[in-house]
Amino acid sequence: MLLGVILMRYSHSWYSRFCRFKGRMLHNGIHILSHLRLLLRWTLYATCMGLIVGAIGTAFVYAIQIVTTFRSNHPWILAALPFGGFLIIWLYHISHDQNDKGTNMVLASLRSETELPLQMAPLIFISTIITHLCGGSAGREGAALQLGGSIGNLFSHILKLAERDKQVLILCGMSAAFSAIFRTPIAAPIFAMEVVCVGAMRYAALVPCTIASLAASWLAGKAGIPLAKFSVTGIPTLQIVPALQILLLGICCAAVSILFCILLRKTEQILQHYFPNPYLRILTASIILWFLIFLVQSPAYLGIGTDIIQNALSGEVVWYAFLAKMIFTSVTLGGGFKGGEIVPSFFVGATFGCLFGHWVGLSPSFCAAVGIASLFCGVTNCPLASLLIAVELFGTKGLPYILLAISVSYLLSGYYGLYGEQSFLSSKYTGQHIHHKTKKI
């Protein structure tokens, strides 16, 4: 009798444990299936977004190449600089988008503070091409982030997605556009997630952003746009003296990045204050650019300046190149022309780093590469993306030095940055919660 009671209790206990185990397995299975459905859904969305934005980004790259070649072969087009500016102002006026904030609007939309207008994508596409055709000094990534963000926002409305999913789709568009235009598919998703809020990457967007970036990069590659690769020479082995020199370069790049951000903001503020009429402002900027071209006797600081970046990575530079590019770009963007600031920051970093290498007796080529990565970090406050861009552009050799310079530049650049809507979740110095936007100048 006692044995029977024991067996019954044991059987009941075993059966209860089995039921609980079965319930947990069923619960976990449901969760796994739910996550798989989520993965399949975002794979579909991200792939479509990557291919669509990648195609537009590829067309944009070729359009920039065509107008840059035309401008190089027909220098007289520089005379049309103010007319190109008038056309840009008129296009934004008839689109009722005179107060366009560019990339800052995209960043604000990711915090649900504003809605991206549908006309943002075609406007930035056309106006950036006009800027490069007529000789403005600007980059391409402003168009990349705005193109991708605007298209992502449009598709989120078509698909009637929730607000959090809309933000992920905007990040997918940003990643895809950056990847297609710069051909840095690994750094692109990290940059898109990192630039919005420093210290709070949106890891929920990692899978869709990665898929969109890879799809866009694949399409751009099939269309004939090569991966971004540069050759760097004279990389030293890890030793104390070169490490101290690179540490000093990181400090200097932080200072230059702050100067660049201040110059961009102050030039825009001054031109808006003294020339409130946008047509008069862009005419004044055009006249200043003409004077600057006459002063330096070279068109090298117009457009993107890829040739000068390549020369700096080969060890060739004039001492004032980084200052000239900062001034040219500040006048161009402050006057109302459209484009980006990141490629100009590459230009500034490469030329300053090359010059620094000549000063201290370290490889100018390698210092140019370090300058690109550390100054990019200083102006964007994105250390992870900066490191990955360095890997994709220059390879892994010399990476400890590059990481050192990036870290120092990130710390010492403070809360300055290219984008006024970029926010900081935690202090760079203490790690305490702060949550404020880029420093006002």
What would you say this structure looks like, in words?
The chain is mainly α and 441 residues long. The protein has helices spanning 2-73, 81-94, 103-109, 120-134, 141-158, 163-182, 187-196, 206-222, 240-274, 278-296, 306-313, 321-335, 342-360, 364-380, 383-394, 399-412, and strands spanning 197-198, 423-426, 433-437. The chain has a 3-stranded mixed β-sheet with strand order 1-2-3. Helix 2 (81-94) packs antiparallel against helix 4, helix 7 (187-196) crosses helix 8 and helix 14 runs parallel beside helix 16. The longest helix is centred in the first third of the chain and has 72 residues, at 2-73. It is globular.
Provide a short characterization of the protein structure.
The chain is mainly α. Helix content is about 70%, strand content about 0%.
Features:
mainly alpha; 441 residues; 3-stranded mixed sheet; 2% strand
Could you tell me how far the N terminus lies from the C terminus, measured between alpha carbons in angstroms?
88 Å
Strand content: under 5%
What's the gyration radius in Å?
25 Å
Number of helices: 16
Q: Flag low-confidence runs.
A: none
Taken in chain order, the helices and strands follow as: HHHHHHHEHHHHHHHHHEE
**Quaternary form:** single chain
Q: Can you give the mean pLDDT?
A: 87
Basic shape: globular
Structural class computed from helices and strand pairing: mainly alpha
Give the strand order, joined by hyphens, for the main sheet: 1-2-3
The biggest sheet amounts to:
3 strands, mixed
Counting DSSP E segments of at least 2 residues, the number of strands comes to 3
Share of residues in helices: over 70%
